[in-house]
User: Fold this.
Amino acid sequence: RNHDAARKAPAWWALIAGAIGSACASAQVPLAVEHVAAVTDLVYVTAAPGDAARLFALERAGIVRIIKDGTRLVTPFLNIENIVNSGSIEQGLLGLAFDPGYAANGRFYVFYTGPSASNDLRVVRYRVSTNPDVADPGSAVPVLTVPHEPWSNHNAGWMAFGPVDGHLYIATGDGGDGCDPNQAAQNPDSLLGKILRINVAVLPYTIPPNNPFASGGGRPEIVALGLRNPWRCGFDRETGDLWIGDVGEGAAEEINLVPGTVLAGPQAAPVNFGWDCREGFECANVGPWPCPVT
Assistant:
């Protein structure tokens, strides 16, 4: 009833692999799998802007590994195991985003879950050291902390910079347990169950003026709400469209879209994807917050 992304991943990958296999078979294109490198409890892979030689792989315990020209480097790019809480299967080092100007400023951002006493969600900025394959662990600058008591699940963790506006987007889960008992996802004064957008050109971060609550009415970081656990998302780099993969409760999984035109223009209100009033197109819980009709 209360699913998590880690448990569902094998089924999704089987489905994707089957679809690719069928497409390739019909076109008579050979399909092969190449072993690149071994990592432990892999949760995410990304690359730095303009870097075609390296992949950065996140191990949930708190380590960022580099795979360079097909080989995993022995020395981690970043090891923050001592400050990452990975005690529950949905906790740990969950996200990594490189600044669009990384080649010049060396800045990157990580998303991880904090101490078990609070279970808070933390976004922290780091810089690379003089060695391009090793980060400076002493360069940490806190960017955003989101309270997440008392449950350990539904943290989300995806982050990326918008390809059009250059702002940092952050996906957060609804705070955990089942059926959003704190009614966080629909609450405009909570940062849980949301897509956030902030300007990190300087810290403390500032609010993009076209965010829907930039002038009041809710937390100004919010651009979309009504999400359960938007574990992984992605931008269309040509259109700026934002695609959101939201893990369902028990009835439906969601792939949601925020058009790039909506993100670029002034938003009168956040895009509302319905949780926890709706799961997919079905009615779910009834809470104190107004819910979308469809």
Notes: Residues 120 and 178 are 18 Å apart (CA to CA). Helices lie at 5-27, 102-105, 260-264. Confidence is low (pLDDT under 50) at residues 1-25.
